[in-house]
Amino acid sequence: MPLTRKAYRAAILHSIADPAEVGIEASYEYFEDGLLVVDNGQISALGHASDLLPKLPADIEITHYQDALITPGFIDTHIHLPQTGMVGAYGEQLLDWLNTYTFPCESQFADKAHADEVADIFIKELLRNGTTTALVFGSVHPQSVNSFFEAAQQLDLRMIAGKVMMDRNAPDYLTDTAESSYLESKALIERWHGKGRLHYAVTPRFAPTSTPEQLTLAGQLLTEYPDLYMQTHISENLKEIEWVKELFPERKGYLDVYDHYQLLGERSVFAHGVHLCDDECARLAETGSAISFCPTSNFFLGSGLFNLPMAEKHKLNVGLGTDVGGGTSFSLLQTLNEAYKVMQLQGARLSPFKSLYLATLGGARALRLEDKIGNLQPGTDADFLVLDYNATPLLGYRLKQANNIAEALFVLMTLGDDRTVLQTYAAGNLVHQR
Ligand code: GUN
Ligand code: ZN
């Protein structure tokens, strides 16, 4: 028996399919008294404790949790590392918010010591909130990505990140050139992509801040390396969309700009998509691209309500994003709380199991990593959480009134936040203890 074999006993819940495709009941597995067995950083068994315990060696170390729920680690499909220091900046919508707050804050990452300091805070914050994988925007400076990957590597986290490419319509102190962005991205890819559990994402900020030459080179990087990610923003704000039409009059619309430069594909994640039309959803789905749904940001920046039912109609891959610092919380539980309200305002519902799916398996599918993360099937990475039913007095009291796991899950997502995350495990290692 390998020394690293351990078992965790608690209520255990994970998504196994999209409720929109298979219905709610077939979308999850729940073990009221479950057991999760971890071998060398991977899950080796999952089931009812009564079935699995007799098959395990008598001396195996078992951690038994009362009043707790084990779930897969959360997956944040859109977040900005260099905006950690500007969450909750007052008063502006997207374009003025970028100029007033975002660009000055990101400029500080020219300093590697600053990048190191914030990367450390940022990763601790992810883990405190139960996020074990994130698709991360760095700043325009390569060192922002180096600092992040250095810190993520030390903890053996599965993370995806890229340096922003931005060669126009931003302050001089924060722009690269088409050529320098290509070369710097390439150097980061060579250094980090596929190293351990790290992956690289080609990261043109959004169409307005890239010249056609830069977008061409971003597309070229994607053809040069297998399995690279691409992340950018799309159709978040009405003024932004008008601006894209002015800058690219020859294109049919916002998505067509990215399509023209060959930035759509199975590892491409577009943040927001609040104002996408039906045809654009169809094209995203056809190319296997994904959308990151960022409800706290879309509320905070006054961007609008994402139409999840339309995305579902097109079988479009959707993950959940905090979009910190446009978003106001690192917590995917709080993000789901807001996602529920987005649906309410559109006369629709977000079931607790769809919510769980969005924060875990849906995110994994958006990132094409469902064979590794987002669920607790044997053979996947042991990235999981222990959620504490008694994290706050109100949560504890409210959960006592819950009659079943659906109610309990919904309450966790409504009242829960970082305090709810008792422990976070990544590759079988305890990486956060409340
Ligand atoms: N569009 C371009 N850059 C950004 C950014 O940093 N945050 C958000 N929310 N939207 C953007
Ligand atoms: Zn963003």
Fold topology:
Blueprint: E1 6-15, H1 19-22, E2 28-39, E3 42-48, H2 49-52, E4 61-72, E5 74-80, H3 94-107, H4 112-128, E6 131-137, H5 142-154, E7 159-162, E8 164-165, H6 178-192, E9 198-204, H7 212-224, E10 229-234, H8 238-247, H9 254-260, E11 268-272, H10 278-286, E12 290-293, H11 295-300, H12 308-313, E13 317-320, H13 332-344, H14 352-359, H15 361-366, E14 384-388, H16 393-400, H17 405-415, E15 421-426, E16 429-433
Parallel strand pairs: 1-4, 5-6, 6-7, 7-9, 8-9, 9-10, 10-11, 11-12, 12-13
Antiparallel strand pairs: 1-2, 2-3, 4-14, 14-15, 15-16
Helix pairs in contact: 4-5, 5-6, 6-7, 13-17, 14-17, 16-17
Bound molecules: guanine and zinc ion (ZN).
The number of helical runs is 17
Number of strands: 16
- Ranges with pLDDT <50 over ≥5 residues? none
Named CATH architecture of the largest domain: Alpha-Beta Barrel
Q: For the terminal residues, how far apart are their CA atoms? A: 30 Å
- Shape call: globular
Number of domains: 2
User: What structural class results from the helix and strand content?
Assistant: alpha/beta
Q: Are any ligands bound, and if so which?
A: guanine, zinc ion
Beta-strand content: 15-25%
